[in-house]
Amino acid sequence: MAHNKLLSTQQVSQHKAPQDCWIVVDNHVWDVTDFLEEHPGGSSIILKYAGRDATKAYSEVHTPGVLKTNLPPTKYMGALDESTIDDDWIKSSPIETPQVILDNEKPPLHTLINSHDFEVVASRKASKKTWAFYSSAATDLITRDANKSCFDRIWFRPRVLRNVRSVDTKTKILGVNSNLPLFVSPAAMAKLIHPDGECAIARACEDKGIMHGVSNNSSYTMEDLRNTAPSANFFFQLYVNRDREKSAALLRQCSANPNVKAIFVTVDAAWPGKREADERVKADETLSVPMAPSQAKNDKKGGGLGRVMAGFIDSGLTWEDLAWVRQHTHLPVCLKGVMSADDAVLAMEAGLDGILLSNHGGRNLDTSPPSIITLLELQKRCPEIFDKMEIYVDSGIRRGTDILKAICLGATAVGMGRSMLFATNYGQEGVEHLIDIMRDELETAMRNNGITSLDEAAPYLVNTADIDHLVPSARQHPYARKVAKGRRPLPISKL
Amino acid sequence: MAHNKLLSTQQVSQHKAPQDCWIVVDNHVWDVTDFLEEHPGGSSIILKYAGRDATKAYSEVHTPGVLKTNLPPTKYMGALDESTIDDDWIKSSPIETPQVILDNEKPPLHTLINSHDFEVVASRKASKKTWAFYSSAATDLITRDANKSCFDRIWFRPRVLRNVRSVDTKTKILGVNSNLPLFVSPAAMAKLIHPDGECAIARACEDKGIMHGVSNNSSYTMEDLRNTAPSANFFFQLYVNRDREKSAALLRQCSANPNVKAIFVTVDAAWPGKREADERVKADETLSVPMAPSQAKNDKKGGGLGRVMAGFIDSGLTWEDLAWVRQHTHLPVCLKGVMSADDAVLAMEAGLDGILLSNHGGRNLDTSPPSIITLLELQKRCPEIFDKMEIYVDSGIRRGTDILKAICLGATAVGMGRSMLFATNYGQEGVEHLIDIMRDELETAMRNNGITSLDEAAPYLVNTADIDHLVPSARQHPYARKVAKGRRPLPISKL
Amino acid sequence: MAHNKLLSTQQVSQHKAPQDCWIVVDNHVWDVTDFLEEHPGGSSIILKYAGRDATKAYSEVHTPGVLKTNLPPTKYMGALDESTIDDDWIKSSPIETPQVILDNEKPPLHTLINSHDFEVVASRKASKKTWAFYSSAATDLITRDANKSCFDRIWFRPRVLRNVRSVDTKTKILGVNSNLPLFVSPAAMAKLIHPDGECAIARACEDKGIMHGVSNNSSYTMEDLRNTAPSANFFFQLYVNRDREKSAALLRQCSANPNVKAIFVTVDAAWPGKREADERVKADETLSVPMAPSQAKNDKKGGGLGRVMAGFIDSGLTWEDLAWVRQHTHLPVCLKGVMSADDAVLAMEAGLDGILLSNHGGRNLDTSPPSIITLLELQKRCPEIFDKMEIYVDSGIRRGTDILKAICLGATAVGMGRSMLFATNYGQEGVEHLIDIMRDELETAMRNNGITSLDEAAPYLVNTADIDHLVPSARQHPYARKVAKGRRPLPISKL
Amino acid sequence: MAHNKLLSTQQVSQHKAPQDCWIVVDNHVWDVTDFLEEHPGGSSIILKYAGRDATKAYSEVHTPGVLKTNLPPTKYMGALDESTIDDDWIKSSPIETPQVILDNEKPPLHTLINSHDFEVVASRKASKKTWAFYSSAATDLITRDANKSCFDRIWFRPRVLRNVRSVDTKTKILGVNSNLPLFVSPAAMAKLIHPDGECAIARACEDKGIMHGVSNNSSYTMEDLRNTAPSANFFFQLYVNRDREKSAALLRQCSANPNVKAIFVTVDAAWPGKREADERVKADETLSVPMAPSQAKNDKKGGGLGRVMAGFIDSGLTWEDLAWVRQHTHLPVCLKGVMSADDAVLAMEAGLDGILLSNHGGRNLDTSPPSIITLLELQKRCPEIFDKMEIYVDSGIRRGTDILKAICLGATAVGMGRSMLFATNYGQEGVEHLIDIMRDELETAMRNNGITSLDEAAPYLVNTADIDHLVPSARQHPYARKVAKGRRPLPISKL
């Protein structure tokens, strides 16, 4: 560190490019080139002062020690030779006050390199209410966190010395081509984080060739989405309305929309979960969504968007009602939200086309089982089901390795919901970037496991020993289907 | 952020309502509307300065950077145009010093949305001694914490597509109707946190239709409680006095009180536990309780209220003494504090009406078993007991999901002690609010598991695989009832 | 908070007693009565200013906000009426500067209520080197921490309704009466923390009627200890010297000392462990111990007292050498530091009188097994050993519940080493206080488990299910005694 | 604390030696002797002011409270008697400004006493990019951390009373003598942390008599290394180039180099892992390595050195290609990166000379199995392999106890990669110091387990019960070798 060196204003002003940027603060000269991209407030605000005096702007935002603390001593270039200060120098310093709002700028998209990054940015840049609504989950967040941690506890058993030069991630979902075994899981109100909302997602899915699961509580209608992304493939997530005619109308619209390939009836949200972060933040009561007769409001329980917007959903839906759904659509019908092998078998017996193992991202019933545990339960208790219908998984997918684990264990494809909303923060480009990341991570995971197509993904590639003991082993209770009569608790068979 | 904008005092003073509130600090104008409810010191102190200059009040409590740090830049409205300051403006600024005591105000009751919130508020607002006495538990707090975490490690196995439109949480406890499978567990000296003490609890239980378990160390007598809540149902928790006549008198009074429905004899506190937080804070030696001959004091061990107030309890109580209890009351007699299947069987053989599985909230013997583990032990080792007597559980219940898990595993009802004391912080209204919260959480959990009455709650709905290995599997040792003779340790059968 | 109230100097000066103490800081009057005992620098420094102005003394040590931050608003009594300041007031304020060294004062002994407290005080008040030497353990501290956590993972199975009015903790150790199943485990150089060193321990053990295990590296000789505590019972911990004659001399001295009841030959320290905290602090090279030819020094590995002082120990000691020990003493001979059932059986076959299961407090070999796991290994693999010799346990005992767990699982008595050193910080009185605490905790644990004598302590009272899987189940390998020949690793039988 | 004592400048100036060093700051005299070595900026900067006034230098770097906060009150010697200040005193205070860069000095090598210390120093002193490249691992770092934690969960079963006076750590690796069962694992670009790079490592290995595994991406060529360390033993880690002729040339060079004893073909990096810390820091694009046609660059994914430099590696390598390798060298050929028993068996069948169980330090595929788990898998599923070929382990070795555990479980030797790079921070001397530390730790572990040669290291000395459940128990899937056909997932045999 040449801290005794005196530098003239002429010398300093030569370093004014992004790749060679010095600034002066309190007559100390610093090389901030390497720091530009790390600056929490973005690089542009610094570049305004490249080769110039930034004291005034700096002082409005930072305390004097920040530079010294954050830069290594090697970046200290010396002291400004004050005798060289002249009019040019003084004029060169921009007079506009730095805009503090810059601190609020999102980091450049290319600096986000995984799904966690999108979540971090959203936590800082989305409105408080949007963040609360998107990120919240039921009560103590146990299921939300276990969704991810159970994936992390599955080990690979990678095979080496296999030719993995080219890798193919293509698959089919309900007969529809998909470039990845990944779809966007239905998630409500994408417009809260970006004006383009679900339109951005639809266009990204169209470009990247994956399926977009559209929420009943989408900020845009299916027609809007078809218009914006005319060759996209959708499935529609239905919340059955207590007023059945309204749901029937929606089913008819979807069936008439050639881009809609399937109906997913939601069954994991018979009653709205208690999402406390969502309740604690006041909602904008002007908010409504076009395909559901819902209107935000704040009541004595709080401002929970998730709870209030769900007001129209019929909590009386039963297996019998699925016949009614079939009557109103020719499309494949799947269930979203199966959480037990017992109900998976019932779904198979009911002739459904697929089931999405999901706990609603942990948003509805805390300590409901992580989806990957339910997938293992199917492998253990009803493996024949994989021959009869497609099985999907969502809740907790954050990495390409997570996708591959689910596929190895029998899933046809997996969905990502929250992460896609967080990516929508950057509009269509953000969602595309996230899909690219997931593809890259999946391909890397496949190659490093020694496989090149999804057909090769099989259970022998994963070691679930660390979570196998969590998988329920008991057979379905004999009386379970008719609902247990009598108060007397039954002995736990597995004890 | 329009921070260059100049705002006149006239403009500022128009934003003076709770739903549109600006304040001026150091000539900066901020919109604090959204911040009102978050303000740790309560919103009222801010509202005093709505549309006005708050600099003086602000500076007495906060350092200059607090506002900038806590508010997003979008809430900065601009600078105050100092040329517009006039006499009206100056006079409008209240001259009274802000009352620092406001920091001590409790948050509004409706902002508390779960049992944890009541605990957090009590930790901050109750006196140091009250907090220490209520929250403390034996030595290293292992049992206290495991009481809760063992519930968290039980997973649901929710069933879908069942009609859950209407849900019924009613049940009977010893033949007495209860709107919930929940009662207030006996806990001492509620007056420490609110002058109404147990009277507030009794009235809340009366209104909400649940049973109130009254502590032998209650701040009010059974007669007081009956007078304040004439249609409430109570059970009385008895600590048997070394001077048996005193206990006999209490039993006679309870038996003559038509609101008292049962006697719970405490057996998990043969000796006072070592509650270190309680010992470390000096007690008010004027404190005494009416139904027990107890008087607080500070001695060389410390100021432990729990220890000192328990001085009258007979540590020589045995199974034989239960006959003596029966002689002094016609009421059902239950045991509070059974911690093993062995003693549960003895209680069944002794003809008791019920047992409350409890470890005294972890307050007496650290590493005594979590109550839910004891419930599983009963299911495993003596399932026939559920046909013979009612089983209750307390210690660790914080959520509606916890209640449902205990019911699924065979409990008739569960108790909450500490949480109810924390709710008493807000008087009767607080306790009612907490009961409402618990009911709402329980109903939500029932619905999202696919059941609508407690009769349907059965073991097949829960997965205890993560804690099953903790359940003792050994049969009761053959000599256990006569007390092992001889020093030689016996081989551990399960190893 | 009556913060607008003006208080005269006369009013303030009336509150000058420990039980009613006000002080003035910056003209604010605070009631610090309740705070006296909490003051980290001790109460005496505050009491100097009781009823007076403490501004000057306060400011030298604290920043202005400390009082406001640490005291509740209710302790603010008002502002000092400056018009009442007179000469008496000014003179009443002591002029001596507060002694910063007071921050170094130990808290009063009676405020320490468990063994952890003694450790905390030692960590703050002992010299850096003493703390490093006493508290350090081998490399990553895994064994040190597991010693305690394995106790914490054992649950009790408490029995209720047993007469526990009087409880008896007496037992015999090698035929010697002991008031508790507890002894002081040998630990080196107690003088580092208090000038009385082992003399303080010996006198405390004499008064409390428990046995004192004296380290070969004691700061005082056995004769010193016998002189200071003429009716104490000792056992002597022998490190066998490479120069056997020196050890023989020690054995002869011990055998001639009627207070010495047994010899414990240390076998868990064949080579000094790597205690990094100890190495990192420079040692005082003038330090030596009388019964071992050891002298502290700092070398290129660091300043490790434990390592350097162990230089004389013979790392070539074998089972054959025990015969040599027997030749030089008529006293019972035990082994300290057995860590496997295999060696326990060898010790039994060698005819030793007892074994102390110990890993040297985790100080010698990191990831050596926690002692309580070794005790379970004995129960599992060689239960007959409990009929043949006495088994002791140390390493990790911090609570009365720990003592009871070890006794239930077959130990005759347990030792505490580090905690006793930390208690020696307060001299004899400190050690006595700690022994009293341990007795009280043990009695409470016995009573709350439903037993009144140690004869009743048996395995059925504990549930070790959470750690049973850690207990080695393999039988001793057939070749283990002759030392495995050949490099080829043997299959792990238990896999 | 004698803080009222006045000290003359003459008195102060006598304490000017490293072993007796006082300094004056703001006229307070402090004894900083004990603090010298702890000073984060190194002792030399303080010693400049020994016995003199350091106020000016101190103030440039520290706030006034630092000394008071960091030194115990006993180190305060008194106030400077200002009346004794004379010209000599004033002149004695050096006038040069303290060099802030001193904060960047590495601590003296002898103060580093374990492998963690080297990592800590590197994290602070290496360039940001070097630290990111060396320390990073794949995505969520799960495998990187489990590599270490799985070692920590293996317990020893130490044996006592065995003669461990002399201990021998010598062994043979592929017939080559090694003083330790330890080698330097291949790791790329050591020059990033020290100009001597791999030359420093080679010379250290030569001096200490262990083998140096040289990375294909070494900063120096094999010839450079042979020249600098003419009697060192190397093995060469080959990344097979898509342009086979380039690899063939390297193989020929290695085969002609008498110091190269084996070729290790890397198979755990078919595709570069996603090392996010590495991607996030911009790379110096002028960087290249001599033996690989690689050039650093920054692209849209980031600046990942690991990814970009791996661009030449052939991801199409298969078992068949090993024959091609054999054709170009007479040296023993081993595989680096086997992660399953299945591939270990294939390697054995392919006639390889050894395999290095490795997951590339967790750098390539997150949740690939910890190497020690793979070693246990071999013991469980194909124990015969230990008779047929040498097995090595790397990834996670940080302690001598880790080395011994791997040897007990059948490994011939273990490798350390990252730690050796961190030690290279200090050049050859640093690497030697680390090797000495590892030898000392290994010898201590052997002795305290009761063994004196590696031949005695056998499974009975370790208890793997805490991780045994993680070891895959399923037999290799019947179709695994021909690669599973068909999409249908296979039932998981072990469930």
UniProtKB/TrEMBL annotation, chains A, B, C, D:
Enzyme class: oxidoreductase
Name of the protein this chain belongs to: L-lactate dehydrogenase (cytochrome)
Domain FMN hydroxy acid dehydrogenase: 107-467
Cofactor: heme b; FMN
Organism annotation: Aspergillus avenaceus
Higher taxonomy: Eukaryota, Fungi, Dikarya, Ascomycota, Pezizomycotina
Cited Pfam families: Cyt-b5, FMN_dh
Subunit structure as annotated in this protein's UniProt entry: Homotetramer.
SMART domains registered for this protein in UniProt: Cyt-b5
Family classification: Belongs to the cytochrome b5 family. In the N-terminal section; belongs to the cytochrome b5 family.
Subcellular location: Mitochondrion intermembrane space
Domain annotation Cytochrome b5 heme-binding: ranges: 4-81
GO cellular component, one term: mitochondrial intermembrane space
